[in-house]
Amino acid sequence: MNGIYIHIPFCIKRCSYCDFCSSVPKAGAIESYTSALIKSIDNFPVGGVPSDTIYFGGGTPSLLSEVQFERILNAVVKKFDVRRGSEITAEANPGTVSEDYLSSLRKMGLNRISFGIQSCKEKELYTLGRIHSFSEACKAVELSKKAGIDNISADIMLGIPYQTKDSALESVRKIASLGVKHISAYMLKIEPGTRFDCEEIRSLIPDDDTVSDIYLEAVKALDRLGFKQYEISNFSVPGYESKHNLKYWTGEEYIGFGASAHSFFGGKRFYTDDNIEEFIKNPCAEPLTEDSEPDALEEYILLGLRLCKGISLDRIADLGGDISGIESLISRMIFGGLMIKSGDRIALTPEGFLVSNGIISSVIEKVTKI
Ligand code: SF4
User: Fold this and answer.
1) What are phi and psi of 283, to 5 degrees?
2) pLDDT for 95
3) CA-to-CA distance for 229 and 231, rounded, in angstroms?
4) Pocket test for ligand 1, best of 21, 23, 30, 60 (most atoms within 8 A of CB)
5) Cα 126 to averaged position of ligand 1 atoms, centre (Å)
6) In the sheet where 2-8 sits, what is the strand order?
7) DSSP string, 226-254
8) Domains of the chain, first to last
9) Could you read off the pLDDT of 157-209 as tens digits, one per residue?
10) Strands 112-118, 152-158: parallel, antiparallel or unpaired by DSSP?
11) Hey, which of 7, 15, 156 would you mutate to test ligand 1's pocket, going by the most ligand atoms within 8 Å of its Cβ?
C-alpha cells in the first residue's frame, strides 16, 4: 500500500547540526507554502492511489496552524484513497505544542506524533541548538497523551557534544520511561556547512569507539525497557513500529509533497528541488528524476539489511542475484558476530549495523558478480 509524505520546511530556529531542508519562516511564508502544497497535491497526475500512511515531516510540522494542517490533510484525503485506520503522523518540536493544538489535530485524524527530544541533559540540548528543555519535552509527551494521541515516538541523538556513555544511557532510560511507544536513536553525523562542522565541536564529541559502545549499550538498554529493535536506528514496543517508515525499507511506494520531498512511485524514484521559495512560486513543476529504473536487487539488499528481519537469499535469487558463492562471506560475518542466519534469511546484528555500509557493499558485490 502507498504512503504519503508531506514536507514542512520551517523551524523556529535552526539547530546547529541540521542540514535538512528547512528555514526560519518570514511573515506569511507558512500560509503561502500551505497553498502551494495543496496545489501540488491537487495537480499530482494520479488520483485515488490506495494509501494507508500519511507522514508530516520537516522541519517542524507543528508550526502549521490547525487550519493549515486541516487544509493539507483534506487535500490528501480528496486526492488519494486514504484507507480507514491509516497511520497519520506528525513530527513535532516539544517546544511548540499545547493541549488544545494537539486535541484539534487528534480530532482531524492525527494518531501518531514524533517528538525530537534528543537528550535529557540541558547542556547537550543547548549545544545542539534545540529550543526546548527536557522538562518541556516531558510536558509535551503528557499533553499528547491527554489529547488522546498515545502512539508517541521520541528521537534520541547519540554521539553528541558533551555526551558520555552515562549521560547517553540516562537519556535513553529517562526518555523510554515517559510512556512513549517508539524510539529512534540516531548517531550524530557532522554535515558539511552546518555550525557543527568545525574543530571546536569535533573536540567535544565522544570518539568513534565510545559512540559505538554507546550505541550497543543503548540497544541493550532499550531491549530491557521493552523496546525491540526493528531497524538500525528504530525501536518500538511490539506492534508500534512506524508503518510509514517501514515502507522506505521494504520497497513499498510513497509519494512526497513539498520542497525536497522524495517519492518512489510507479517504479521510479523522483524528488522536488529543495528551494522553498521556488516551490511556493511553482509548486507544480516537473519533479526531478533520482532513478528512473531502480535496480530491484540492489535496493532489496541495501534497504532490507537495515532491518532486523534482514533479507531472504531465495528472494535475492528470484531477483536475479547469484547466491552460489555467498556462503563463505556469510560464515565470516557470522564468525565475527556481525550477522545471523536463520533458514534462508540473513540479518545484521547490532555490531553488524555499526559497519553496515561495508557489509552491504560486500553482499551486493558478491551476488551481482557475473
Ligand atoms: S527542529 Fe529539526 S528540522 Fe528544524 S533545525 Fe532542528 S533538527 Fe533541523
Assistant:
1) -70, -15
2) 83
3) 6
4) 60
5) 13
6) 228-231, 234-236, 182-187, 152-158, 112-118, 81-92, 50-58, 2-8, 254-257, 262-265, 268-271, 288-291
7) T-EEEETTEEESTT-S-HHHHHHHHT--E
8) 2-248 (3.20.20.70), 296-368 (1.10.10.10)
9) 999 999 999 999 999 999 999 999 999 999 999 999 999 999 999 999 999 99
10) parallel
11) 15
Q: How far is CA 247 from CA 63, 204, 211, 230, in A?
A: 26, 36, 28, 13
> What is the pTM assigned to this prediction?
0.96
> Which parts of the chain are beta strand (E)?
2-8, 50-58, 81-92, 112-118, 152-158, 182-187, 228-231, 234-236, 254-257, 262-265, 268-271, 288-291, 311-312, 339-342, 345-348
Answer yes or no: is the C-beta of 95 below 6 A from any ligand 1 atom: no
258 φ, ψ (degrees, to nearest 5): 110, 165
Cα(199)–Cα(201) distance, rounded to whole angstroms?
5
Whether ligand 1 lies within 6 angstroms of the CB of 22 is answered as yes
| Phi, psi angles (nearest 5°) of residue 330 | -60, -45
What are the counts of helices (DSSP H) followed by strands (DSSP E) for the chain?
15, 15
Distance (Å, whole) CA 196 – CA 208 = 17
Distance 128 CA to ligand 1 centre (A): 10
